[in-house]
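Example 5.3 — Orc1-like AAA ATPase domain-containing protein
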Amino acid sequence: MSLTMEELANLKLKVKERDFEIASLNAFINRDPSLSSSCVLINGYKPIGKTLVVKEFLNAMQLNHTIVACDECVSKQMLLQRCFTRIRKDGGDELNTLRATDVVALTSAISDQFASFLTSLETLFDETEYEAHHVLVLDRFDQCLDNCVEFVSAFSKMRECSSVRNLSVVIVFSSGIPRQVVTLSNPIIEFEPYSETQVIKILQDAQLCHLKNSSFVEDDGNDKVLESAKQEFYNQYVKFVVDSYFSYTGSDMVMLQHLIVELWDKFIEPLQMGMYSINEIVKIFKHNIDLFNSDKIISNSSVPDYRTLRDDEGDGEGDNAGQTLGNGSGNNGTGDDETVRLGNVHDLPYHSKFILLAAYLASYGNQRNDLHKYSKVKVVKYKKRGSTKKRQRLNNSANGNGGTTAGHMSKNDIDSRLLTANYVDLERILAILSVIYQHSSITLNQSDSKDLLYLGDEIIELENKKLAEKSCFTLTKNIDLNLQIATLYSLGFLSKTSNSDILAARIRWKCNLDWPMAEAIAKSVGFPIVDFLDDDD
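Solution (predicted structure tokens):
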């Protein structure tokens, strides 16, 4: 049976602004597997709570379910094996009736063909006598690095061509339903983006931030008035954040939650210092107007947990910095640029840093100059007169010979490609990666010739072999590029385009790093990134 009216009402109170979607799920998924659809497709903008609604609905139904993050799977085989393993752990083999050798055999027998997965799944259900209704949720299905569209039709016809009758599949898309599966008779549930009013209501009910009782004491000692004032203060703060950033974030709940939590501590500083009361939120907003107009927050919002050493020093030593500037010290301006470092980016693997650098160079560089920059044979090319005049004008300004306005660049002097990152082909990123890693990697270019005692020609032959190996070096044979690119994409460092049109262009990628982050990564690996960003025209 489906959810009762009382259960639906309780679920709608828990999950706000999704009444129609919950009712649709209740119509297509039943506690009885014979009354449920074999495959349900869900589509909607990425961060609007599709997975949350499905998870809460399945919990209310009290059904065994498995949620698989498809964006973490780099191949079809990995996706099918992970589905089988999770189904076995979440209900298919609760009593561990299968031996370990049988589990390994069934898992290793799964290839990139759906028939092998179905055979292992039938064996699992038959051996364990598993007959309870199980729901498999394939989250972010369209973000798998390998094209798995044919699995949609396979899951839809699974009950027709196998003995598995108690498995229902929910597939979640974020970039549109592929055209290859439109003709299938699968129910489709569309999740509409939240409006600004709905976003404000959801975030206000979530209560992401709290005020401590010890910091705010009213004179009358009325706790009820104080709690209501705290709630009103938080509600107005959420409205300020959403009104300021909704034109940029849209209904991206993940990004808005991140902004609300990150700006909260700085927003309540005047309140904690006693500059304003809790009822003067408009004055507090005007005092912190820079928090809602800062370009730094916008440019780094797609990268989670981004902080620099300058931010940490500014939080802990803000008063000391102000006293130093007041005393007239002139060395602080030159030292700040060298202290910029990264927080969680330093934890990335060595190869991932080079992948980010290659993506940054490809996103901001001119493709016509790739042969000139990344090849051993430098192409002789006459420079344009405009470019020569521009360099002369900037040099004269730097030397103090050009007057007050000679050093300013006009709009024609600024390359529009350097203002924003462009989407590029993955092949171009990999080509640049192979070149810069081959010639700039410390591990690959390390030589033992200076540390060894030359007793014969054997050492020379060994060094020649190293040079020959370096000339034939291929990065893809040594590391799993697909896995590292998928990790960087999930962290927000890389973005990609996706199109459901089978006749459209291939998927293109771009880098989300800004210049301070790219420069800090380049310094950490000893890569001269500035040399590759110079305009050759």
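Remark. Residues 217-222, 301-343, 377-386, 402-407 have pLDDT under 50 and may be disordered.
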